[in-house]
Design a protein that fits this description.
This protein is mainly alpha-helical. The protein folds into two domains: about 10-255, Ferritin, core subunit, four-helix bundle (Ferritin), CATH 1.20.1260; about 280-360. It has helices at about 10-25, 30-35, 45-70, 105-115, 125-130, 155-175, 205-220, 235-245, 290-315, 325-340; strands at about 250, 255. Strands 1-2 form a two-stranded antiparallel ribbon. A hairpin with a 2-residue loop joins strand 1 (about 250) and strand 2. Helix 4 (about 105-115) runs antiparallel to helix 8 (about 235-245), helix 6 (about 155-175) packs antiparallel against helix 7 (about 205-220) and helix 9 runs antiparallel to helix 10 (about 325-340). It is globular.
Length: about 375
Amino acid sequence: MSKTTSRITSIAQLHSYLHAALQLEHATLPPYLTALYSIRPGTNLDAVQILRAVVVEEMLHLTLAANLLNAVGGTPDLTRPDFVPRYPAVLPDGETDFQVDVQRLSVDAVNNFLKIERPRKAPDEASRHRGADAAAACPSGAAPGYYEIVGSYYSIGEFYDEILRGMEYLDAAQPGALFIGDRSRQVSSEYYYAAGGKLLTVTDLASARAAIRLIAEQGEGHGLSIYDREGELSHYYRFEQLLLGRYYRKAGGTADLPGEPTGPALHVEWDAVYPIKKNVHLEDYEAGSELRAAAVAFNEAYAGLLRLLTAAYTGQPRLLLDAVPAMYRVRDRLDLLLRNPLPGAGGLHAAPTFEPAAAGAVRS
């Protein structure tokens, strides 16, 4: 951990960063889910496996972020009208040099994923801490209501470094006064419904450090390795395999170097996907049409999932077991959209809008 002075000097600031962390972890799910389900059934099995594994781990990261926030007395809320960004959007950690898109699986989409999961080392110190003197970074293009953070960060890993520095600073300033959250809100492994890494409860600085390390390493790898400390290939290099056309390999005590996979060949049929419209919104659907009704139904299902997760993270962790059927409902409604051409879109297909705040909108 860097000895850089913490920008987080109060509990209120720490809560803001951790709320932003929740938004950040969630912001990756719509693009990953859409790319996954844009793949035509029975094709691109390698890509399906890679995307599905990453989605499961992002759900783990979302739950770990909730545990971190609960541990320091915060309250996770995934139901705020501004929680889900309007895509295209910048990430809530202030990575303003690119935007995140919701689109079909493509070379462009995978390159976008690589930017999301990029390793923490910035090209230079100036770009690492852009806007360090800014009082608050509400990035241009970010959804209104993004929680206030100071400066901007080159990568997700660097953003979590800042959170850990803040925790270390606050814990040292007032020993015993930081980790005061209700421990019954911690979601433990007994309630986690899938593989993808160990779900850690957070009760002190050591467990917070372990949770943050897991999130960062699963995304970008550990140090100079493409793997995390548990030996799992990180998200960045999983996605990179799709472009390089070959799996990374780890045998015995040696592992492939970044950018040089030597494992089995991996083939992606880029055309074996539904040609969905990029970053579609509810206004793209004709009033009174069946597709608009399907888009609203998807948003209702997605809003229900976010309500369920919020309840699970705020005292009813057993509800997390119900997330599987909720995800299936989301998937089924998403699939109904992707299979249908969007009138007036030049042959492009419909897609989910990920606008849960509009879930109560009149269907017509």
